[in-house]
Amino acid sequence: MSSKKLQYWRLYLLSLVLGIGGSFQYGIQVSLIASPAVHVQSFVNYTWMLRYDAPVDESTNQLIWSFIVAVLSLGAWAGAIHSGSLPVTYGRKKALLINNVVAIVAALLMVFSRMAKSFEMILLGRFLYGYNVGLGLSVHLMYLGESSPKKLRGFMTLTSSIFIGFGKVMGQIIGIKEIMGTEEMWPYLLAVSGIPAVLQFVTLLFFPEAPRYLYIDKGDTEGSKKALEWLWQEDNLKMEMDDMQKERETTQGEKAKTVKDVLTSRCVRWQLLTLAIPCAGVQFCGINALYFYAFDIFRESGVPEDQMHYLAIGIGATELITITLCSFLIDRAGRKKLMGYGYLLMGVTMCVLTIMLSIKDLNSWIPYVNIGLIFCVICIYGLGPSGVSMALPADLFLQAWRPSAFVISGTINWLGMFLVGMLFGYVVEGLGQFCFLIFVAYSFFSSAFMLYFVPETKGKTMVEIMEDFNKLNYKTRVADVEETDDDYATKF
């Protein structure tokens, strides 16, 4: 069995190369920005003084800082929109190579921002990093899903979540003041994402284009076969080639679908709902809010300020370990159970956390219970929703629909992140600990949706998954399901 697993070593190597320049960049950008906050704000003040001979007022400085943090999601949204066209026109591999150049430019802007005495360069750099992350994350998932055998597809696409977790921890570690979180080092800390971009640019040149893209989009049977033989080291590819042939016939003569097609076509309605509610909406399950709230809870438990950062690294590491566990479970337990019950347990735990936060002054041990509950929620999140929300979208759509579907999921994800980032502070002020109840409602709703409606996709081919969803899409017209095999994409 182990030799069977080892035959895919080139595929694992590809997942490593894609991860480093793909979702790792997302993790590192999200967590890294917290540590140089003070230094960047004083730099904004310094450049303001040079230009206007007066210090910047507190609220303007805070606004500029908030925007430096939030502009990442706007850039990522722009990147996600292009993930519908770039990888279709130029191929998955070239799209990623172009994407790495964007990150390298962003890193150079960061390095020279202090020399040029311009905080606008930091803003532009963050926007470009966002673009890199938005495009990179979508293409990373497409590339991996289209290069993996169906029995490994869940595990392979889940490696993207592992790299996000790894990126978060790395960002927190290099951001501590003993390493790069100093007054001197902050431009280099912000430029650190240039290194993975260079690494991916150089190593990706040695890998083939995604086999399914070559076969289904380009009609290059020979190239696709070569790519599969090289990646899987297998001569007997008949089943995989038949599956791709079947999918190509299903979408014969069709161009890649537009976003409008995905939003209006009846034949992908339930796939779209599954993509939007439990997967792309993962921002609304409250995990970012938890990270935000964690420091307040640590403070109340009497954790000294200078130790906070290490506890935050602990939270990041917990998420990373549980996502890694999830990658071994996903092809055994299946997507549906992991995500459905994951959301259910998250909802219950956050209910308990809300109650405990309300009565925290009654007893001195309650704040410690709250720390435990935070770690519980993060464990459940890592084991279920976090990983599955990355793996499931790769299962839901056929080749012609996939790029546009990723545009939609990227849009929901990044705009959700932007809104949560900009508004969450105000919500906490207004609602206090009861802000978690909004997330509890979302978690219960997603859980019910997942467990009642969504069919299991574990171990099925793309065409079989489509047939399962057609039972939902055409519930009222069962007879039509028979016909859709012939003219699948023309039915609305």
TrEMBL record:
* Catalytic reaction equation(s): D-fructose(out) = D-fructose(in)
Q: Does the keyword Nuclease apply?
A: no
- Family annotation (PROSITE patterns): MFS (PS50850)
Major localization class = membrane
Cite the NCBIfam families for this sequence.
Answer: SP
Q: Where in the cell is it found?
A: Cell membrane, Sarcolemma; Cell membrane
Q: Residue ranges of the Major facilitator superfamily (MFS) profile domain?
A: 15-458
Would you identify the family this protein belongs to, as annotated?
Answer: Belongs to the major facilitator superfamily. Sugar transporter (TC 2.A.1.1) family. Glucose transporter subfamily.
The protein depicted here goes by the name: Solute carrier family 2, facilitated glucose transporter member 5
Q: Which UniProt keywords apply?
A: Cell membrane, Membrane, Sugar transport, Transmembrane, Transmembrane helix, Transport
InterPro entries per record: GLUT, MFS_dom, MFS_sugar_transport-like, MFS_trans_sf, Sugar/inositol_transpt
Superkingdom of origin organism = Eukaryota
Molecular-function GO terms, alphabetical: D-glucose transmembrane transporter activity; fructose transmembrane transporter activity
- UniProt lists the gene as LOC103359997
A single GO CC term, please? Answer: sarcolemma
The way this protein sits in the membrane is described as: Multi-pass membrane protein
